[in-house]
Every structure is written in structure tokens, then in C-alpha cells.
Amino acid sequence: MLNCLQERAIEVKNKKLNSIENQNNYLIYENFYFDFSKQYIDKKILALLLNFVKNRDIKRSISDLFSDKKINTTENRSALHWLLRAPSLSEVSNGLKPIHRNIIDNVTSMSSLIKIIHDGAWLGVNNQVIDCIVNIGVGGSDLGPAMVISALKEFRPENSSHISIHFVATMDGTDLLELFKTIDPAKTLFVYASKSFSTLDTQSNASTALEWMKSKFPGSAVSNILEKHFIGITSKPDKAENWGIPTKHILTFDESIGGRYSLWSTIGFSIAVAIGMENFNALLSGANSMDEHFQNAPLETNLPLIMALVNFWNVRFLNFQSQLILPYDGRLKLLPAYLQQLEMESNGKSVNHKGELLKYNTSPILWGDVGTKGQHAFYQLLHQGTHAVMCDFIVFADSEQQILTADKSVQARFKYHKKINIANCLAQAELLAFGSNSAFKKFNLESNPHKIYSGGKPSNMILIKELTPYSLGQLVSLYEHKVFTLAALWDINPFDQWGVELGKKIADTTYLGLEDDNALCQELSDGTLRLMKQINNFQ
User: What are the pLDDT digits (tens) for 22-51?
Assistant: First the structure.
């Protein structure tokens, strides 16, 4: 099978995209239209890929995901992020019912705390109403909530419209320093969001926030400040208690929930504050809809699976190592960063489940930005550069909610904005795929080598009717399952992230050296030792 695919890859590499018979390469699921007609994939290649995935017993892999099986083999855990959006106990196997009950209990607790905030009944140490939420987290505890809130600003209910929400993630303290200049400590609630409650970045920022609050309320007991101005979200509630957060203000989630999959859990506290529990539940429902589709749809019409096969083909056989995420909607400006973590932390692996070195490439490098901004930045490289890049275009056909929330005097202008935005999205995908030697010969660019567009850049077009909490939930779940399918095809574990651990441990050593020249670790390289000495000289 692999040999057949390799032979087909050699054939299509020398072809123009518009010469490949792939006009029927599209799928429809609910309000999603997934077009992959601008790929080096014809009917024969698609059939070979489907046969390959059948031989890898992908159905069993999917079944294992939606169970209590410990598919995270290197950490001996299940991967139960999907359980966070399962709608009822009746749809959960007996072995998972206790965990699902805990999920329901935690969501109930979260909802109760949010109601107090929305009702203006959460008071700080001097009895002022809390109207500012600061989410202190990093990785999944930051990227997911920030992305969703940015995307769904128009869905904020009236009872949360007065609440400002901020995110702090950088270890260098710059986020906090800027924030301290603008927020009122008397009205601020800090959300210490950390799965382990020991991540240095988050721990440092939370401790600095506490010291700042203590300096602002010198007459208040620390326990009172912690009770009135901090909540903790973690899978290690004992550590949150030891830090000083009262039990009633600690929200938990299960150890089996990976950080980059945690926005669906109580880590989504800031999301629910921003958009309300009703919209938060709609987000979960959308994700669950894609879960059901992934489990039950035939392989030929399974949206996450086909999306993964397209990626697999491009990376494994056509040697595309760079993937662009191009949302043509400013509301999704944080989506590329979110998907960077989801895919590269999951599939950035070089050994298989047995620990054997792989002889093929795995995760591509993901990057991107809002498409219309990219047109004035990196599209020059896409169109005329030398790098092989594949793209995902994401566009919404309707923006009724966005238009309705605009001032009535400019609503007609927003309809114009929508159409010209979509026109640019379609035009760029067309030109990247087919180049100037296509239907656009009327522009007569071919005679000037500086104006030639080579084309040959494959892309997917993900067209969605409108951006809502439900459709955003579907979109994120779609990418989650695409990543999982790719991991199954590459025979890697997508649920661990050992690659981020060692650098943190070495940092403990370098920190000691920055504190005291006599503590410099001589096992470090000469270059690093010189840098550390120079930093100490500067200070």
C-alpha cells in the first residue's frame, strides 16, 4: 500500500494542480462545507489512502479514544477530554460514570460561582463589586480560553457585558506589569488556572499577583485576600489548598484531561464568565456533535478523518513540512496560536509507541494569521517564494450576528466587508493553487518573470455558515480529531508532551547561576556560562 502511494506521489509531483481530476473532493456535514479539490489527490489516491487507513484499523483507534482505555501509554492515562462534552450519563459507559458525575458536579460549582459574579454579588475585601477577571495560566490554560473569548465577543450576555477579562501568561512579568497599571485591585478576581498547580510560569505570576494585592490591602489578612480575590482551577486540589485558596473556590478537572484539551473543562471558567453558561453549553454541544460524527460517519464521509488523510498525504508523500492556518475572520485571530499548541505539542514526536525512531516526518510546522493581514505580510513568500506550504482557509459565509451587533447606520457597510473578505479568500486560494498560468491569463503577467505566480500550493477550504458557540465547538473538535487520526497513522502518542519538561528542569540550574556566580553549573556549555556571567555583569 505504501509503495503504491509513493508511486502515485511521484506521478502527481510533476503535474499542475488543475490537471488533477479532483473536482468532487468535498464533504458536507451540517453547516460545514469542506473542500479539498485544490489538493494533489485524485480518486485513485483517495481510494488508496482510505484503504491504508482501513488497514491501520482506524475504527478501533477511534473506539479506544471514546472509552476508558489508557491510550496515553507513556503516562498510563486515558484521554477523556471528549467526556467533558458528553451530554448525559446515559451515553457514558459504566466505567466512566463516576468521572462524568464529577464533571457534572464541577460544572455545577462553576456555574454557581459565575452566577455570583454575574449578579454583582461577589465582593472584594472592601466590599466593592468584582468586575474584572484575570486568568493566570499558560499553554492550554491560556490559549484555549483566550481564543474562544476573542472569537465569541458578540455572544456576551448583558449580565457579563460590564466584566473585563484579561489573560496573563508570560513568565517575564510583562503581562502583569502592564495590567497592574490599569486594573482596580479592589474589583479584581484572579483565576489561578494550572492543571498541575506547579507550572513555574503560572506559579510565579500568581505569587506576584498575591504580593501586589497584599501591598494594596496591608490591613487585610492574607487569607481574606485569597478568599475574596482568588480562585484555583486544577487537577491537584490539595496543592491549591496548600497555596491558600479556600476549598469552596477550587474547581477541579480530571487528571486524564490534557492541558491543550482543557478549555471544555472548568479551565473554561473565564469563557463561561464572558459568554454565559448557556453559550458555554452550546460550545460543548458543538464539540459533541463532531465527536458523534467522528465515531459514526463512514470513513469516506468522515470529516476529521478525510482532513487527516489530506494532511498525511502532503506530509508523508509530498514532503510538505509547513502548514498555514488562515482564518478569514478577525474574530479567529487567536486560532492559529491555539492550533499550534494542539498539533505541534501533540504530534511533534520522533519515536513511535514502542520508543523506536521514526523514519518519516510527523507534525508539520503550523503558523498563520488572519488571512487579510497575511496578504500584506507573508503571502509574497507563499506566491513567489521557494518553500512548499499547504494551507487551511477558514471562512464564514454569514455574519448576521456580527452585523446585528453593529451600529445600524453602518450595518450595510458590514455586509460589503463580508463579501469583499470572502472574495479575497477565494481568490487567494485559487491563485495559490493554480498560479498565473490559469484562468487569469487576461492579466498578461507571464511575460515578466518577476510577476509569475507558480501555483502548486495545495489548500483546504473550510466554509462554515456562521460563527456561533456551537459551530466554534465543532471547528475545534474537528481539529482535535484530525490530530488524533494523524497520530494513529504515524503510530505516535499525541497525549504526552515530554519535550517541554527537560528545559524547565535545566532552568532551575541556570536560575541558581544567575542568583550567584559561585553556583554556576560547570556542566553547561562554555557559551551559556559566558552569557550568564555577562548577564550578571549587566545587572
Answer: 778 999 999 999 999 999 999 999 999 999
pTM score above 0.85: yes
Across the range 465-482, mean pLDDT stands at 97
Residue 169 and residue 146: Cα distance in Å, rounded?
Answer: 11
pLDDT, tens digit (0-9, with 9 covering 90-100), for 196-232: 998 888 999 999 999 999 999 999 999 999 999 999 9
Composition of the chain by helix, strand, coil, percent to 5: 55, 15, 30
Q: How many of the other CB atoms lie within 10 Å of CB of 33?
A: 16
CA atoms of 401 and 353, how far apart (whole Å)? 46
Given a contact cutoff of 8 angstroms between Cβ atoms, the answer to whether 322 and 389 are in contact is yes
Q: What is the mean pLDDT of residues 155-180?
A: 93
Give Dmax (Cα) for the chain: 78
Question: For residues 334 and 340, what is the distance between their CA atoms, to the nearest angstrom?
Answer: 10
100 counts as catalytic: no
DSSP per position, 149-161: HHHTGGG--GGGT
Measured distance CA(155)–CA(152) in Å, rounded = 5
How crowded is the C-beta side of 254, counted as CA atoms within 13 Å?
24
For residues 95 and 116, what is the distance between their CA atoms, to the nearest angstrom?
A: 34
CB-based contacts of 51: which residues, under 8 Å, 6+ apart? 1
Q: Please enumerate in sequence order all residues whose Cβ is within 8 A of that of 190, keeping only pairs 6 or more positions apart, or say none.
A: 134, 136, 206, 209, 210, 213, 229, 230, 231
Measured CA angle at 442 (ends 440, 443), to 5 deg:
80
Task: Give tens-digit pLDDT for 410-432.
Answer: 777 777 888 999 999 999 999 99
CA-based nearest residue to 491, from 387, 377, 392, 349: 349
Of 249, 343, 345, 418, the catalytic one is 345
440 pLDDT above the threshold of 70:
no
Reference 272, options 144, 401, 156, 102; nearest CA is 156
> Catalytic pick from 376, 408, 450, 505?
376
Residue 453, C-beta contacts closer than 8 angstroms, at least 6 positions apart: 383, 384, 431, 435, 436, 445
Quote the strand ranges of 330-455, DSSP E: 365-368, 389-398
Q: Is 451 annotated in the active site?
A: no
Catalytic site includes residue 481: no
